[in-house]
UniProtKB/TrEMBL annotation:
Matching Pfam families: ADH_N, ADH_zinc_N
Gene3D superfamilies xref list: Medium-chain alcohol dehydrogenases, catalytic domain, NAD(P)-binding Rossmann-like Domain
Stored SUPFAM superfamilies: GroES-like, NAD(P)-binding Rossmann-fold domains
Cross-referenced InterPro entries: ADH-like_C (IPR013149), ADH-like_N (IPR013154), ER (IPR020843), GroES-like_sf (IPR011032), NAD(P)-bd_dom_sf (IPR036291)
Limits of the Enoyl reductase (ER) domain: 8-300
Entry protein name: Zinc-binding dehydrogenase
Source species of the chain: Streptomyces tubbatahanensis
Lineage top rank: taxon: Bacteria
Stretch forming the signal peptide: none
Keyword entries, A-Z: NADP, Oxidoreductase
Length: 306
């Protein structure tokens, strides 16, 4: 079968190779991959790939071999999955605790855009607590996570301010009900909750806008610069603020995947897909995703969904 593997070349991060199909563990199903969605964090891993890295965490397709232990969906079932790795291939093995069944109305391209970004958004909002009437600031908002957070938070009653680099990257967020700014310094606080994903100098600026006793959830460092905080600067603003380090990972993922599928099916969540392409274009798509030339998610199709 065909699989994409790292090259170590930033200009062409992956290339095709021919390998035997993977062998599933007893609690894994074999999936014929119809679509997969890379994440920007994966593009960073590909710059200096560790030995044995098989990229691919967000997939959708068809179960061709059910798990040998009897768990999970039967062969012939359409699913969305979140394996630890190996999803950028014609076939992938996925633990059944990381699969959700797809209804007929959700195509594989939309489904593949759900897992990592959608699970992150759900778990972020749980960490933030009740949002009805809350003032929320979201930085780095124009990626896949930002779109899901915006739609879910506004739907929950939050008054959300979203920071995007350009007006164009924020158009959809404004349609969803967010107030847009294009520099975190321009955001008008104080905020009850800040969801911060850029790091560097932006986190201290966002932190200064948290109300006393408020919450900042730090869930990324997309700017790739470390953060420096000044103890004394906090004395004039957000005293007693809580800074919570957040990482989405930790199975099982099936319940959250099922929730995301349900929200899409009920027309309450709408994946923002900025590019859909054949997986022959994966290398170019990864570069564009890394350089922020794609708004929302990018989805690659292996053939079945073209």
């Amino acid at each position: 079968m065909r699989r994409l593997i790292p090259t170590g070349d930033p200009a062409r991060p992956v290339a095709f190779t021919e390998v035997p199909p993977p062998v599933p563990e007893p609690g894994e199903a074999m999936i014929k991959v119809e679509a997969f969605a890379p994440n920007r964090g994966e593009t960073f891993l590909l710059e200096h790939p560790r030995p044995g890295l098989l990229p691919g965490k967000d997939v959708a397709g068809l179960v061709v071999r059910a798990a040998a232990d009897g768990s999970g969906p039967a062969a012939g079932t359409r699913v969305v999955g979140h394996p630890a790795q190996g999803g950028w291939a014609a076939y992938a093995t996925v633990p059944t605790h990381s699969l959700a069944v797809l209804p007929h109305g959700i195509d594989s391209a939309r489904a593949a855009a759900l897992p990592l970004a959608g699970i992150t958004a759900l778990r972020l909002l749980r960490a933030a607590g009740s949002l009805a009437g809350a003032r929320v600031l979201l930085t780095g908002a124009s990626g896949g996570v930002g779109h899901y957070v915006t739609e879910l938070a506004v739907g929950a009653g939050a008054r959300l301010t979203a920071v995007t680099a350009t007006p164009e990257r924020g158009e959809r967020l404004a349609e969803l009900g967010a107030h847009l700014v294009h520099d975190v310094a321009a955001a008008q606080g104080p905020f009850d909750v800040v969801l911060e994903s850029t790091g560097g100098p932006h986190l201290p600026t966002a932190l200064a806008k948290v109300r006393p006793g408020g919450l900042l959830v730090w869930f990324g460092q997309a700017g790739r610069a470390p953060v420096t905080l000044d103890f004394f600067a906090l004395l004039s603003g957000p005293e007693r603020v809580t800074i919570q380090h957040f990482h989405y990972a930790g199975g099982p993922y099936a319940p959250d995947l099922a929730t995301l599928v349900h929200l899409v099916e009920k027309d309450r969540l709408h994946p923002e897909i900025g590019r859909t392409a054949d997986w022959a274009q994966t290398a170019d798509t990864l570069v564009d995703l890394r350089e922020r030339r794609i708004r929302g998610k990018a989805v690659l199709l292996t053939g079945e969904e073209r």
